[in-house]
Amino acid sequence: MEIGKLYTEAIEIQVLSAIVTKKATYALQRHPDLAVAGIGCLQYKILRALGFGEQTISELSRKLMLDPSTLVPAVDALERKGLVRRGKDPHDRRRVPLALTERGTKFLECFPLTDDRNPVLKSLQAMGDEQSHQLLALLRELVRHMPGGEEILIKVSYRVRAQTTDALAPPDTVNEK
Length: 177
Description:
This protein is mainly α. It folds into two domains: 3-113, Winged helix-like DNA-binding domain superfamily/Winged helix DNA-binding domain (Arc Repressor Mutant, subunit A), CATH 1.10.10.10; 128-177, no CATH class. It has nine helices and two strands; from the N terminus they run H-H-H-H-H-E-E-H-H-H-H. It is globular. 10% of the residues are buried. Mean pLDDT is 85; it is low at 165-177.
């Protein structure tokens, strides 16, 4: 493929991916259940990440790709709401692991990952099964060719299975070529 056309396609894919992300984030920010609970989008993402187990601010920072200074006020607010607790590492007193409280765990159990208002879900429904599956396969292939792509796909597969209601379903074909 001509390099100029490839550059143009790369830019368009980046722009379209950013739009999908913005639309999904906007919908999450406007979700009425989050608003009633007084939980912002960033706080929700932190709760979801902690749903996988204890993590420090630094670990969350890497996973969420945000500066630790951005996370601290959000974690503080979650702690004040009784959804998150700061712990102590018996092996390293400088390490402060964060964990969900029982209330935080119950909040996540009651809050669906997606609903009928989700713009990505609506768009996939409009596309139909075949095109939705094709899009997913192509996105996986795109990520697979990125640095660390296989590892990313494994982590995504684990996270998706862990967050779906049927976590005992057989693993997806993410790693099949």
